[in-house]
Structure formats: C-alpha cells, structure tokens
Design a protein that fits this description.
heterodimer, A: about 400 residues, alpha+beta, 2 domains, 6-stranded mixed β-barrel, 13 helices, 16 strands, about 50% helix, about 20% strand, B: about 230 residues, alpha/beta, Rossmann fold, 5-stranded antiparallel beta sheet, 5-stranded parallel beta sheet, globular
Chain lengths: ~400, ~230
C-alpha cells in the first residue's frame, strides 16, 4: 500500500469522523500549546530582560539593595533605591575610567487623558547617545523645562509637540516641598522597544527643580517689602508668599537657580560606561576599596541573572504540570483510539476480507493518528507563536 | 474451475466441522449454495476466497492450490482473483461511491489504480444505474444502490470467481431480482464463476447449479460416516 493511498484514505476517514478528529487535535494542541507558549514567552522575557542588562555595563548607587539599584537603573519603574549624590557621578567621571550618566527618577507626571502618570527620568544628554535613542518628532532637550517623551507615552497620553505636562508632587500636604512643574514637550522619541518608550525624559537639572532643589521666582530686589522677612547688603530672606515659577519660559529662565553644592544634589543611580575592559575592572576595584563605604557598583547582568534564576524556577513547575497533563491526555487518547478501533471493527473486518493485511490496516490507522498529531503540533506551535508575537508588547509592558 | 478435495475444517473450541470429500465447480458456471443456517456455507466461501486458511485437504482455483499459499499470497490471490459481495454490503461509510469501488486498488498493490481502472469503475457504476451517484457518500444511497456498489467493487479487478454471501438477504423482492440480474449478467458477460449463498429458493431457477450444503455438515461423531459425500 502506498503512502499516497494511506493518506487519501486517512484524510477521508478524518473528514468523515471530523468531530472526533477535531476533539483529538484540540486536546493535543492545547496540551502542547501551554508548555510551548510558556517556553517561548519565557525565552522572550529572558532575552528582553537580559539584553537591557547586557547593554548596561555598570550601575553605581547608594549602599543598599543591589537588586533595587540595578532594576531602578535599568527599568526606572521599580522600588526606588536609596539616593546617592551627583558627587558619585563626578567621581566616576574624574577617575577617567568611565563616562558617567546620572539618572534621577523620583517623580512621575500627573495623569493625562485618564492615563496614569509615568516616571520622569532626569539625566544628561549622554544617556540618549548611550541608549542610541533617536527623536522621531521634534528635537532633543535644549533648555530647562523641556521634556522628550517615549513613543508609548506619546501614544497613550495623546501628547504632541508643544503640549505641557505637569509633574506630580510627592506629597500634596508638604507646602514647603516641591511644586508641580509644567514641562514643555519638545520631542517624541523613536520606538526603542525598551523601558525608554514608557517614560518622560528631562535634563537632570529640570529634575532637580521638580525636586525643589532649584527654583525660579520673581526678583526679590523688586519685591514688595511685605514678602521680605530680612534684607541685608548681602542676604535677602523672603517669606513663603514669594511663589516659585511653575513653568520655565524664556522670560523667567534666568531667574532659575540652585541652592547648595551640585555635588550634594541627589541622583538615583549612575550608569558607568567604561572605555575598556581594563577601566571597568579598575572602576569596580575602586568600589571594592576606597568607595566601599559610600557607594556600591553593581554589574546588571549578574544581578538580573540572579533574579532570573529565582523567577525561572516557576518554569519547572509549568513543565511538571505540562508533563502531568500530557500523560493524562496520552492516556485519554489511547482510550479514544482503542474505542475508535472497536467502533470501526466492521470496517477493519471488511478490509481484511477484501485482501488488506493487518500491517496495512495498522498503517491506515497510524496515518490517521499521525495526521492528527501533526495537526495538533502545528496548531500548538502556531498558537504559541501567535501568542508570543501578539503578547510581546504586553509582556514588555509587564516587564518594563 | 474450483476443485475441492478431502477438505476438512473446524473452528477452534467449536463443535462445527466441515468435511467436503469432493466438489468441483466449473469455470464460468453460476452456482447457488443453499442449506440451513450454520451448515458452513459462508465458511466454504471464506475457504475458497482464501480468507480462512485451509487446514486439511486441497482447494484448487484454476490450478492454484490455496493450501500451499502463505497469508500474503492468499491476500494477493483474493484481491486479484476473487470478488466478494456481502449481505450487509460492507461498504466504507466515509468513502464516496467511486472510492468504495476503487477500494481494492487502495488497500493493496495487486490491482493498479490507473486511469484504466478508474474508467472501468465508472463504467461499472454507469452500467449499474449509479451514474448520478458516483461522487455521493454511500450513506446517501438506498439499500439496493448500496448492494450495486458492492457488486461493482467485487467486479472491478475482473475476478475469476465472484462469491456472494446472501447478497439479496436485506433487499425487497423487486430489488433482489434487479441485483441478481445485475450480478449474473455481469458474471456471464465476463465469464466469471459465481458462487452465491442464498436462502431464497425462489431465485434458484436462475442458477446453473444448486449445491445443497446440508450433506457437508457433520458432527465429530459422524464425521467418518460422512466422508466421501460429494455432489
């Protein structure tokens, strides 16, 4: 008996008993789909989370949780680590071992168009070069108060160039604290398929203004004496009646200033981009010795890998449950096939009478079974692939 | 020609015993096989068709001794030389009319599935009045139509022997006549030897010969006394 004839008869049989065939194919497909999908999604998850870490050589920050520091430096939207200061960024830069990129992520935007606020990332222009972020529309940061938004933020919040977005104060009841700053959208980033798509970028000085460290207000020399508490030749002390500007414009930008030493200004983390492997080692050495008591330097790949090792233990449970369900399905299929062969006893007997060998009958039944298995596998793989493609963005939004 | 000599057959764990000393059926003859239920009529058909292995004795079909053939050789012999028609038609539900007729070509390599065979299948169906039903599922056919399909299937390989086991048993009298007419006329046209088991004695006048089977049925106790019985 040729395979062509076996296939022909198998197709006819499956078509006739299509209810049974579809049920078996669906059972197989569903049994296979889950572990395949989980494997694909976890691989994707692993690749996404690792690629970001691999692209980030070192992260420096305050002593404390290395996981919080690494995740905050990589993905922004996580538990905020203890803050370090701009002195750390300057220190790294001064060593000459690496380019330092400070990151300040303490505030979020206010909700816009019913969309929850997103993190405001204060950084320097080097960050955009480091992450290879391009501007799809508008231009980059050029003055205090400017912001560029990630492509997902622009899409979800329906933001366009020239729109204003407000920062959200940390505590609405702290009158002496920070005030919301109205930021001017000057650019929309091209899609980077990374956490950078989901945040608003400002210059780090703008971030400090949001933080209340810098501010701008009316000239106290021209202010009404009623708002001045004390005035000497060198110092002027004003009351809280002098309100800071809530928006930075060309007219008031010159009035913005910072109080204190920049070295003491807070940053969440500092990305260190060593020029060479040797410099990387040297910088790590510094943080294991002389800077050991004030800061820590983490390798994001190691931290993320440690994290993944914990997270992916779940995968083993999924595999175990899949194995159990596959065993149950196999037993059920064996039962269905056995009953099916019994139901087709007359047909099998007829074929035997006509001259068909037992081997040929076995080939016919096996062909049907193999076709159902093949259909189930194709469905499972296709389904898993579709889910991995369609759920990719959703997965990333969960991650980042 | 079918020649049976000293054939003895029994089923395991059964009191049934068949003993045929000598039976000869001429080529192109049309024989009816009659006898009480359980007398071994169907068993004889199965032995001559090679479905059952020959235990003791010889069965020669056109000089081919079936008792010397292996199982594979008997299957090949069956596919090429024997056409079978059953009381319950035994068509395959999931195949169309034409596919049922061509089934012997698909389940073995004894009969080639070529254009000539396919044309022959169509011709047989057209001649059987099934020209309009060729692509239909067999489940859509009447009982008589189903039996006509079964006859076409049996005749497709141009068999030397056509064996029918009560082919009209499930049909009304009018349809029975039509089926018998189709089967016998086709057999005579192709000079096919016909052995047909029937209980319907009103049909016997249409056969060249009637084999009454009762005489072959023996019990273990009387087997020796029945030896030598022949027609």
């Amino acid at each position: 008996m040729s395979w062509r004839n076996a296939l022909y008869l198998a197709v006819r049989s499956l078509s006739w008993y299509r209810g049974r065939a579809i049920t078996i194919v669906l059972c197989l497909a569903l049994t296979l789909w889950l572990p395949i999908t989980v494997r694909l999604l976890l691989n994707q998850f692993r690749a996404d989370i690792i690629s970001r870490a691999v692209a980030t050589p070192l992260i420096v920050g305050a002593k404390g949780s290395r996981i919080d520091l690494a995740l905050h430096g990589l993905y922004f939207d996580s538990v905020s680590p203890d803050q370090t200061t701009m002195a750390e960024a300057n220190y790294i830069q001064d060593t000459g071992f690496a380019t330092s990129i400070p990151i300040h992520v303490q505030y979020r935007t206010q909700s816009i168009n019913h969309m929850t606020g997103v993190p405001i990332v204060g950084t320097t222009i080097e960050y955009f070069e480091f992450r290879k972020l391009g501007v799809a529309d508008g231009h980059g940061l050029s003055m205090l108060g400017d912001c560029v938004v990630g492509c997902n933020v622009a899409a979800r919040m329906q933001l366009e160039l020239g729109d204003r977005i407000l920062s959200a104060p940390k505590n609405a009841f702290n009158l002496a604290g920070n005030y919301p700053l109205k930021m001017n959208v000057v650019g929309v980033l091209a899609p980077a398929h990374s956490p950078d798509d989901n945040v608003v970028f400002v210059d780090i000085k703008t971030a400090w203004i949001i933080d209340g460290i810098g501010h701008g207000h009316q000239s106290l020399n021209q202010a009404d004496d009623g708002v001045l508490l004390e005035k000497t030749d060198t110092n002027v002390t004003a009351s809280a009646a002098v309100l800071p500007f809530r928006e930075i414009t060309a007219d008031n930008i010159d009035s913005f200033h910072f109080h204190g030493d920049e070295d003491t200004f807070p940053v969440s983390a500092v990305i260190a981009q060593p020029a060479s492997r040797k410099n990387r080692t040297l910088l790590l050495g510094r943080y294991l010795t002389e800077r050991r008591d004030v800061a820590q330097c983490v390798k994001p790949t190691e931290v993320v890998q440690d994290l993944l090792n914990i997270v992916f233990r779940v995968e083993r449970l999924v595999w175990l449950s899949s194995l159990l369900s596959a065993t149950v399905t196999a037993l059920l299929l064996a039962l269905v096939l056995s009953l099916s062969i019994r139901l087709r006893a007359v047909e099998i007997r007829t074929m035997h009478k006509l001259g068909c060998s037992r081997w040929t009958i076995a080939v016919l039944i096996s062909t049907e079974f193999l076709m159902m298995c093949a259909a189930g596998i194709v469905m499972a793989v296709t389904g898993a692939w579709l889910v991995s493609v369609l759920a990719a963005d959703g997965l990333k939004s969960l991650l980042f | 020609m079918i020649e049976i000599q000293q054939l003895k057959f029994s089923y395991p764990r059964s009191h049934f015993h068949l003993h045929i000393s000598d039976l000869t059926i001429e080529t192109a003859s049309v024989s009816a096989v009659v006898g009480p239920s359980g007398s071994g009529k169907t068993t004889l058909l199965h032995l001559v068709a090679g479905i059952l292995p020959i235990g003791v004795g010889n069965v020669l079909v056109d000089q081919t001794d079936l008792s010397t053939l292996t199982d594979a050789e008997r299957r090949r012999f069956r596919l090429q030389q024997v056409g079978l028609v059953f009381q319950d038609f035994e068509l395959i539900d999931y195949l169309s009319v034409i596919d049922n007729v061509l089934l012997p070509c698909r389940i073995g390599d004894a009969v080639a599935l070529d254009d000539g065979t396919q044309q022959r299948a169509v011709n047989l169906l057209e001649r059987s009045g099934l020209a309009d039903h060729i692509r239909k599922p067999v489940t859509k056919l009447s009982q008589g139509e189903k039996q006509r399909v079964a006859i076409c299937r049996a005749l497709l390989p141009k068999p030397a022997i056509l064996m029918a086991d009560e082919p009209t048993g499930n049909l009304d009298p009018k349809t029975s006549d039509q089926i018998l007419e189709l089967m016998l006329s086709s057999a005579r046209e192709y000079k096919t030897t016909v052995m047909m088991v029937t209980h319907d004695h009103s049909l016997l006048h249409q056969f060249d010969r009637v084999i009454d089977f009762e005489q072959f049925l023996t019990s273990p106790e009387t087997a020796s006394s029945a030896e030598g019985a022949s027609i």
